[in-house]
Design goal:
The protein is of the alpha+beta class. It folds into 2 domains: 114 residues, Jelly Rolls (Sandwich); 88 residues, Arc Repressor Mutant, subunit A. It is built from 8 helices and 10 strands. The strands form 3 sheets. It has a 4-stranded antiparallel β-sheet with strand order 2-6-4-5. It has a 3-stranded antiparallel β-sheet with strand order 1-7-3. Helix 6 crosses helix 7. The longest helix has 26 residues. The two termini are 18 Å apart.
């Protein structure tokens, strides 16, 4: 099922089997999209929302010189632009970071689902509120943490989100991001990120090599990054037994 990772068990608003089946039935098509492809432009009218099945996507805003500021990173199980359902147009762009597979859900189908299943409104609202909570944590990370803290916080957050999606065992996961991606996410230069990753490795807090992130002691890394997972509203998700690739 294409919605398996969306609002899984152990989350604050897990979907019932019939609710998941209803969303599955609303999917109009599955698309495979190449990396670094912009799929939503700011100001572009939206008639569907995108559920990320495989890969990594991001939301961003360009300045006048075309320099990109990332506003969010999305992993499998995220309804990337669900907020576009009530807004009908976004003020930011949405781009694939890696090659992705997405499920397309037309807004007319969402309207029908919500008319027939009003209890789903709260759960879809929950998903968008989690996006907002992650964005607030993003502001804290960029505004209050030093370089090492920013990277540590992001990796802790990513680990927690991937555990919830069944894509991390809590200590090891696949993360197909480049050093440039990390620099944009954490508001740093490539050179600075390289130094940070070396320091994390030397301090035995984290090793990020060949797209594999290994965190020997998540609690120590969380302390260094001032990471508290409460804003993710996870209900102690059970980790998988082995890492699953996030392409």
């Amino acid at each position: 099922m294409f919605t398996d990772r969306f609002l899984r068990d152990k989350r604050g608003a897990a979907l019932e089997p019939d609710e998941r089946a209803a969303i599955e039935a609303a999917v109009s098509e599955i698309r495979d999209i190449a990396a670094r492809t912009t799929i939503v432009r700011a100001g572009q009218p939206l008639r569907h929302s995108t559920l990320l099945v495989e890969g990594i996507m991001s939301r961003y805003i360009d300045d006048r010189e075309g320099v990109r500021q990332l506003a969010a990173v999305h992993f499998p199980g995220d309804f990337v632009d669900l907020h576009g359902f009530p807004l009908k147009v976004l003020e930011h762009d949405v781009q694939t970071t890696t090659s992705v597979r997405v499920a397309i859900v037309p807004h007319v189908a969402l309207e029908q689902i919500l008319a027939e299943r009003p209890q789903l409104i709260r759960k879809l609202w929950f998903a968008t509120l989690i996006d907002a909570a992650v964005h607030r944590a993003w502001l804290f990370r960029l505004g209050r943490l030093d370089a090492v803290g920013r990277v540590a916080h992001f990796l802790c957050e990513t680990n927690a989100r991937l555990v919830a999606a069944g894509l991390s065992d809590g200590h090891r996961f696949n993360l197909a991001l480049t050093q440039t991606d990390l620099a944009e996410i954490c508001g740093l230069t490539n050179v600075h990120v390289n130094r940070v990753m070396r320091q994390l490795r030397e301090d035995r807090l984290c090793v990020f090599r060949s797209s594999i992130v290994e965190i020997p002691d998540p609690e120590r890394l969380a302390v260094r990054g001032q990471f508290n997972p409460d804003y993710l509203y996870l209900e102690h998700p059970e980790p998988v037994m082995s890492p699953v690739e996030v392409p």
